[in-house]
């Protein structure tokens, strides 16, 4: 079947009288097919947007609505007929009608523009929305398709989160001030206790019982000082921004700061390695060395080195040649306050907390009577998608 368009032209004789008709027929089948396809596509388009759960508008470049779905009308409280006589400036008070025209005409021809704004419903209620807009062809002309997602609940959650965070910051600041003042005051009192204990020990050096009790007081005071030192460091964990730290240099600094036995040797084999960490990395190595000195008993050598376990991880290994860790103590090593005697029990616990901040893991996998071995596993990429370590001159 074909569609044709006919035209008739009268035949006029020399006297001006009509003597017949001449008929013309034009095949318009393809045009009719195109019109039918356009009608069907627009119908399908309307069906599509009316099936969506979010507000959808088609807007011309003058800012007027040329199509709107049922959800859009319902959310704003207008009928579709009303909205089709309105434009963006009637529901969004952010810009004037002229400003909306300029913004629409500046829309990129390709891609989607996403932004947040506030729509005003018929009754005056304000609705925060996230808009996704892109340029389309509608009814043979370019227009803008906008999809609006109601983000009222998200905004409420964000406001609640911001208020909670502000409250936490305020509480944390107060706790920090109170904690600092308290620790400062208590340290002063401890100094008085230690000073008086020293004087009493000189006065009663001939009385063993008094000497023992005074020594216990001094030891308790030193333990309290260590707990305060731990608390101060613990408060600062995670505050400093992470950056790439030279591991070899950091280990050397920890060794210099350490006041242990000069007979022990630290083998530093971390040349070329940098890791994403902060200044607490030095404290981490210091605590490991301190742990070897206090609990290794026969330690003469410590070694720090690294090895690539696979393409995604690196093992940073600290080991000594002391008595090692007994099987019964291994599960307790990193617990708060655990100690085999002679220390505060916070050194390895603090190490674990540092490791958690960095997004690494640590385990002790040495053999009893053969030395301690701490393996720190560092993923190549952290949870934020950043590199955790780099090796100089490494081929990638």
Largest sheet: 5 strands, antiparallel
pLDDT < 50 stretches:
none
Q: Kindly report the CATH topology of the largest domain.
A: Heat Shock Protein 90
Total domains: 4
Shape: elongated
Order of strands, widest sheet: 4-3-7-6-5
Topology, number of strands: 15
CATH superfamily of the largest domain, by name, is Histidine kinase-like ATPase, C-terminal domain
* Name given to the CATH architecture of the largest domain: 2-Layer Sandwich
Structural class: alpha+beta
Distance between the termini: 67 Å
* SSE arrangement, N to C: EEHEEHHHHEEEHHEHEEHEEHEEE
H/I helix tally: 10
CATH class of the largest domain: Alpha Beta
- Fraction of residues in helix: 40-55%
Radius of gyration: 39 Å
Proportion of residues in β-strands = 25-35%
Mean pLDDT: 80
Brief summary of the model shown:
Helices cover about 40% and strands about 25% of the residues.
